[in-house]
Amino acid sequence: MSTLVLVLLTGIGLGALYFLVASGLSLIYGLMHVLNFAHGAFLTFGAFIGWEVARRLDSTSWWAFAVSILVGGLVGAGVAALTELALIRPLYERHIEQVLVTVGLAFAAVALYEGIWGSDPIYISAPAWMKETTSVLGASVPNTYWVLMLAATALLISLVVFLRYTRFGTIIRAGVENRAMVTALGIDVRTAFLLVFAIGGSAAGVGGVLAAHYTGYVSAHLGSTLLIFAFIVTVIGGLGSLPGAAIASVLVAVLQQFANYYMGGTGDIIVVVALAGVLLVRPSGLLGRRFA
Which of 214, 77, 217, 2 is nearest to 229 (CA)? Predict the structure, then answer.
């Protein structure tokens, strides 16, 4: 029983990490129709800068951990905003060019990170309480997973409240539906779209810092690895659907954990098979709009 609970809860915690990464992808595509393959670069940069800040303060203290998360989010937002201004804004509704530019940026970013921090993983220190465990029904669950769950829940609630109950959220949703009409009303939709990109980048930056604590290291390829599962989650949940991404994140991670434990480490294969099954049965994803 304790083993089952442990696998289930660690799967939910891993799903929370997937959602932190996938939420930005889903938000940016759902509101701006941009497939951002450089999203992993935002995550990696946030992880590196968060680690640099934490180690200069006191990487084993809780306040240094909190500051690193804040800095990671701000760095991710800043880099994402610059990317939107310099590279994405001239290419709206030009999807092939968007893909090529963001893929190129992702490769260039990895090379840059390797040039600055090297190609080998850098193992990090964490606050002592994150290395401890909490007992649930006989299962000792590492506290890192609880932090991931809390962060993902707070992010989902914040995004839903922002989009539904704030002025900027209303402008963004209206701009997606009819950009010309909103512009005719004297509202600068470009500012709202820039904010969307910044929010997505901020989620990636926070996810990068937490991913580093989950894996125990930072490396130039951290974001690239997680981006694969983020895209799988986004597609299964339905492109552009935040609730879909949240549900798919948990389903994919739990399935992956159970397959890894009970089926000889076949979690990645099972996830790919699940993706293929969803695409065959429901190409729009779990909560995505059906194709006409």
Answer: 214
